Structure formats: structure tokens, C-alpha cells
Amino acid sequence: MAGDELWDLTDESGAAIGRTHRRADPVPAGLFHVVASVCVVRGDGLVLMSRRAAIKDWPLSWELPAGSILAGESSAEGASRELAEEVGVRILPASLVPVGRVREESALFDLYVARADGTPAITIDPEEVCESAWVPLEQLFARAARNEMAGPWVSRLDRLGDTLRAAVRV
């Protein structure tokens, strides 16, 4: 069960403090867990967005595939795992290019970019995602401006947007 997931707790710099934490419990004040996301870019420049399942928090909101890193995983390993679980796209952690990190209330959010050859087959997990779409990068920002994205994404894109644009255009 998702509530039984174990996360490594970190300090504000992201250094593990040697304690695990059960997802269902509140993160202790002053400590953090890592959340990671991947912006997959096809050769034609389109990026993969996913829409959250109706049963999740921020139901039916758009985002980039993302999730909490499990105990023992690196940020890139967790990002790669979440991408495979949510939309079936498999990209090796070593292929992920870091975009940046945002400190949130109880999480450190890491964003990566990954290049995909061709158009990867999408296999969504219906408990996580209800649809996906390949869109121009600016559509991501337009959806955020129209409040069509999960709430945390607005501030994440405010902080990392320019760096993400540069990383996608490389």
C-alpha cells in the first residue's frame, strides 16, 4: 500500500539523516523527503505530460511524471522508477540530466530531463494516471497559467522554468 512506503528523511541540503519515514505519517518539522520528476523530450521537441487519476490528490490535474523517492533510492533512480510505473517509459537513471531542485514545505523536488528516441510507447497505470499527451513545452507553462496542473507545479515551474526551457532546447 502507498501509505506504507518508506522514504529516507533528509536535511534541507538533501543529505540523508539515517532515518526512514512512513509515507502515511507527517514529515517531522525541519526534515524533508525527496520527490523527483522527469520531463521526457522526443526528438521533435515534444514533451510528455500525464494527467493524474481521479482518485488521487489534485485529481485530473496535469503534471510531468513524478513521485516520492523510496528508501535506499537515489533521486535519479526514483525518478526513473516513477516514470516507468506511471507511464511505462523506461529511461536509465544515468541518462537523466538534472534541471534543478526546489525546496518545498516538507519535500525537496528534483526535476530531470531525458531524451527519448522516437516516440516511446506509453502504458499508463490507471491508479496513477488517466491520460498522457505529447505537447510543445510551452503547453506545460500554459496549463500551469490556466490552473490545469497539480498545485505544486506552479511554483516549481516559476523556479525552474527558465532552466527547464534551456535544458529542453539543447
Characteristic key phrases:
170 residues, alpha+beta, Nucleoside Triphosphate Pyrophosphohydrolase, 24% helix, globular
CATH class: Alpha Beta
Helix content: 10-25%
Specify the CATH architecture: Alpha-Beta Complex
**The CATH H-level homologous superfamily:** Nucleoside Triphosphate Pyrophosphohydrolase
CATH topology name: Nucleoside Triphosphate Pyrophosphohydrolase
Poorly predicted sequence stretches spanning 5 or more consecutive residues: none
Cα shape: globular
Structural class: alpha+beta
Biggest beta-sheet profile:
4 strands, mixed
Instruction: Report the radius of gyration as a whole number of Å.
Output: 15 Å
Tell me the strand percentage band.
Answer: 25-35%
Query: What kind of assembly state do the chains in view correspond to?
Result: single chain
What is the number of independent domains? 1
Distance between the termini: 39 Å
**Order of H and E elements:** EEEEEEHEEEHH
The strand line-up of the biggest sheet is 6-3-8-7
Question: Count of DSSP helices?
Answer: 3
The number of distinct β-strands equals 9
Write the layout of secondary structure elements.
Layout: E1 6-10, E2 16-22, E3 33-41, E4 47-52, E5 62-63, E6 66-68, H1 75-87, E7 97-103, E8 107-115, E9 129-135, H2 137-145, H3 152-169
Parallel strand pairs: 3-8
Antiparallel strand pairs: 1-2, 3-6, 4-5, 4-9, 7-8
